[in-house]
Structures are given as C-alpha cells and as structure tokens.
Amino acid sequence: MTVITCIEDLRELYRRRVPRMFYDYTDSGSWTEQTYRDNVDAFSQIKLRQRVLVNMEDRNLSKTMVGQQVSMPVALAPVGLTGMQHADGEIKAALAAEKFGVPYCLSTMSICSIEDVAAHTSAPFWFQLYVMRDRAYIERLIERAKLANCSALVLTVDLQILGQRHKDIKNGLSTPPKPTLRNILNITTKPRWAMGMLGTRRRSFGNVVGHVDTVAGMGSLARWTADQFDPTLSWDDVAWIKERWGGKLILKGIIDPDDARRAVQSGADAIVVSNHGGRQLDGAPASLTALPYIVAAVGGEIEIWMDGGIRSGQDVFKAIALGASATLIGRAYIYGLGAMGEAGVTRSLQLIRNELDLTMAFCGLRDINDLTPEVLWPA
Questions:
Q1: Strands (E), 44-90
Q2: Three-state DSSP class for 96?
C-alpha cells in the first residue's frame, strides 16, 4: 500500500492509474515546457525566516475570497477534461472541496455539466467561462450558471488562441479525444480507470452537448470547438459579460501589470496571476515571479490571487507572503483525483493544509491574515 506523504506521491500514483493521454494533458506545458517548469522551480528560490520561542497555539488558516469564508486560502482551479481523469471527476472534486470548506471552480470544458455538479452538491461553486464566438451560447451558459446558484464567474482571459502542446498532439488528444490504437492499448493497462468510466454516462462535454443546436455528436463537437475560441476577445467583452452576469467576477490569466490595471478599471472583483500553468506562452515568467509586479501595480485596489506551480502548503505560504491574498491549485488536486477519486482530492487538500499550518508556525505566526513579506529571508 502506497503511503501518501506529499503531492508528489499522489502524482506518481496518478501516473500509474490514468491513461497516458490524460496524464500528459495535465502534466505538461506548451513548446519547450520551460514556463511550466519555472512555475514550480520559482518557489524553491524563496527562502523563509524560521522564528523560535513564540506562542504557536490556536493557529488560524481561514480567510475570505471575494467575500466567501474559506478554511484556507486555496481554491480548486478550473481544469478541462476533469471527468476524464476519473469517472464523474468534477462532481467528486466539488464534493471534496465542499466538505473541506474551500471553493471549487467548474470549467466550461468539463465533462460533468453545471447542472450535474449542482445536483450533487449543496454549497455554491464557481463557474469558469471561456468566451466563444457564439455569443448566444455564452449568454445561455451564463444564465445556466445563475440558475445553478454559482457564486462567482471566473473569466479566463488568456485563451483566445490555443498554445501548442507537443504531447497532446503526439497522443492524439483533441476535443473530443481520438480513440487511436495506441490510446486503446494504453487504456487496457488501466483497469481501475476503465471500469469507472464504463460505470458512468458522463463521457462527453456536458456544458456543450445538448446545449448547442449544431452539436449532435462527437464529430460535430470537434468541428464546433475548433471554430469557437474567439481571437477577437477584448476588454469590451469583459464589460459585456459583467453586465450579463451581475455577480462576483474574477479575471484569470493576468501576468502583466498593465493588464492588471485594466482589470481594476473593468470592475472585476479579483484577478488571478496566472500563465495558464505554462500551457500558453512558453517563455513567459513564472506566476510567482510576476506576482510582486502585479502587487506593486494594483495591490490594495483589487483582490490578487495566484495560480501556477503550487505543489505544497509552503508554496501557498510563499505566494501569500509575496502579496497574494489567496491561491488556486490545479494539478495538485488533479493528481489526487486521478489517483484516488474524491478521497485523493481530500488528501491533496489535507497535505497542503498541514504543510501551510506547520510552515506558518515555524515562521512564528498564528494567523494567516498576519502574513507579510517579513517572513521571507532577504534575497
């Protein structure tokens, strides 16, 4: 039996249990994957100040994210194809997040639909929006999120066009995935995953199929998706979306201070400093590297969150010390989901919470809200 002590243990178990095409989809970046690697490596460059002989009792990790109380400053980021990592994956991840007291964000390109997740959870979740050329569909999607009582809309702003990911091309991973001989043979070596997928009816893109007139099956879904990402997306569209949504709006994919200033002007409630996990512009700075520049530009004017490369509670601690008020995790919980289902997502959250709590104590703090750059060792 595998003893799980860190996120890396979950990643290794995930690698063994999930088909290669879906493992590679998660654990890869665009082109040379340098930015993908930098996202993780940037955290190792930040050193902490250990303090001793201070009272470490009654520690508190709770904060708020856009007015929502959370048990720790971590939310589950939107990840496409989550329901192909594990049967009913979005439902299982949302349930784990709800029980843990952290937000869950459902992707537009999820396998389980908005309605599926709403029917199986009681706590409001967030919905992530990709803006398509078909604006009538986007209006219906926003309305569906309202009807499902989603408490925030996360607008991804860095995917007008798709970055090239070599592994996905080699694996034939498209929308929908191609059942190549190589993929079929690999799936036969993953019986746990295969039995789970055979036991669910949710194997397509639930937010699209049945909601777009021209999409009747896998072939038409592929054609529709290829044509839909909109390279004309602009700040004017943010205003259009904000007006139709009417609730909390978060802009995900901000990596430049000038864009952060535009985000404040747009009336967004929060921004996520993110380079899309290193999956878009290879050669962009790590999210953690960009974070202090964003904080210097708009700190105090808008909630600033960070996403990218977080694999531990120490990473969360360092991001907050550098000025983020909260963080998002993607791969860290997907590893757990693919490895162990809902229990794996819960385990990933437990690992991060424990590491965050102990790190805070070692640095002489009892409340996450008191965290400042003073905990960092001078560069």
A1: 63-65, 68-70, 74-76
A2: helix
Give how far Cα 338 sits from Cα of 206, 322, 331, Å.
19, 31, 10
Are the C-beta atoms of residues 363 and 36 closer than 8 Å to each other?
no
Question: Which tokens in the block code for residue 280?
Answer: 């878009």
Q: Which fold has domain 7-375?
A: TIM Barrel (3.20.20)
CA dist 238 and 147 (Å) reads 21
Low-confidence ranges of the chain (pLDDT < 50): none
Pairwise CA distance, residues 374 & 267, whole Å: 31
Torsion sign over Cα 133, 26, 80, 282: negative
Annotated catalytic residues are: 276
Contact call for residues 111 and 140 (beta carbons, < 8 A): no
Digit-coded pLDDT (tens) for 196-244 = 999 999 999 999 998 998 887 666 777 787 788 889 999 999 999 999 9
Please write the tens of the pLDDT for every residue from 325-359.
999 999 999 999 999 999 999 999 999 999 999 99
CA distances in angstroms from 63 to 31, 69, 208, listed in the order given: 37, 6, 34
Residue 90's CB: how many other CB atoms inside 10 A? Answer: 30
Q: Which of 362, 103, 134 is nearest to 252 (CA)?
A: 103
Strands 68-70 and 63-65, sheet pairing: antiparallel
- Could you say which DSSP state residue 188 is in? T
Pairing of strands 63-65, 152-156: unpaired
Spatial contact of 28 and 334, defined as CB atoms under 8 Å apart? no
Contact predicate 153/125, CB 8 Å: no
Q: Count of CB atoms within 10 A of residue 199's CB?
A: 9
What local confidence, expressed as pLDDT, does residue 177 receive? Answer: 76
Residue entry with tokens 């960092």: 376
Is residue 22 within 8 A of residue 338, CB to CB? The reply is yes
What is the pLDDT at residue 213? 83
- Model-wide pTM > 0.90: yes
Which residue has tokens 């009654």? 58
Nearest to 18 by CA among 347, 279, 335: 335
Rounded CA gap, 111 and 187, in Å?
Answer: 18
The token pair that represents 216 in the structure block: 């009747």
- Bond into 176 cis (ω within 30): yes
pLDDT of amino acid 218: 64
Tokens 């499902």 -> residue: 148
